Request: fold
Amino acid sequence: MPQRFLRPGITTSKRWNRCDWISQSLYARLITLVDDYGRYDADPELLRSLAFPFGDPEGQVMPVTTLVSSLTTLVDKDLLLIYAAEGKEYLQLTRWQERARSESKYPEPVCKHLQTNVVKCTPPSSKSKPSSKPSPSSNIDLLDGKSNGQTRNFRAIAVANRILANESGWDYDNCKVKRGSLKTTSLATVIEPWIDKRTQDQLLRSWNDAVRRANGAKVDGIAKNPTAYAVACFRDLLKTHEPHPD
Reply:
């Protein structure tokens, strides 16, 4: 593992300073774990054992739920990307600028579809060697199968990122629902209860329907906040759209 250095700008980063101390600490520890592309395995139990081998400041074993919460915070602050590939979850630090010394052994996230106001995946170096892994379109996908409690939140975040990346084409000129006012974690909270009951296509279709309802709403109170109305419609539509077939 190559040596890592914390850049002086981290203490003046607004995103990093708006995180709680556990999330700040996790971010610094992840820097020592990720490869030259800022990627690593996102398994919560593995991360807990490697990032916090001696537990919390009181010497107590850190709950997995605490680590998942910190990962979610880093995603919400645009410091981390959680993505699924080949049946596993991975992470990538955003705005990564490390010089690549070797090819990454982890699959590449689908950065080319993400808008710059959602996740900024900075290539390690313009001179770095291309990865030998298959292209993102051939091996990267959200998981449609059943998940355990630890990965369910990650999968919901991944779907929320796809919505924010406008992969289903819901955001168009003059759309009343603004991506800038949407939060990854807020959408993931709505999605998570349904992540094992709906396919990714059904989730994206429900969101598109919710946006159409918000754009067509005429009530003055709704018109003042069409984004919040779209999220409320999304929650209701998830209860009525067809379930995931077994």
